Amino acid sequence: MNEQRRVVVHREGSPDVELVWVHIPVSESRNRGDHAAFDSHFFAPPGTRLPVIGKRSYAFQVEDREVTIIQFCREYLEALERLVQEFRQ
User: Fold this and answer.
1) CA-CA distances (angstroms) from residue 22 to 13, 25, 29, 78, 89?
2) Neighbours of 60 (CB within 10 A)
3) Using CA atoms in the order 68, 70, 71, 77, what is the torsion angle rounded to 10 degrees?
4) 18-25 vs 65-68, strand pairing mode
5) Which domain holds residue 65?
6) What is the pLDDT of residue 88?
7) 71 CB-side CA count, 13 A
8) Termini Cα distance of the chain
């Protein structure tokens, strides 16, 4: 995690992030607004497979594994929270 931060702050100015397209069924896509008009809709005869949509997901390479930005930040926040708790005790 610290290496990515050093890249951004001290060297290149942008992290080494990979764009990954994740394909999810239309039924699992989230509504982008409060109104049904902004939701995804699909009509077809019974038994038809659900179509999939592409969703952007960004990831870091951490050691030998690919970690999504959300998971990376979650782990970083948990580490910071543990440090704060240890400091308070």
Assistant:
1) 27, 10, 11, 25, 42
2) 19
3) 140
4) unpaired
5) 2-88
6) 92
7) 10
8) 25
pLDDT tens per residue across span 9-32: 666 655 667 788 888 888 777 666
Q: Residue 52 forms beta bridges with which residues?
A: 25
List, for the chain, all residue ranges whose pLDDT scores fall below the cut of 50.
Answer: none
Residue in 15, 14, 12, 10 with CA at minimum distance from that of residue 72: 15
Tally of domains within the chain: 1
* Unique residue bearing structure tokens 């077809």: 44
Token couple for 9? 């702050």
| Cβ atoms within 10 Å, residue 42 | 12
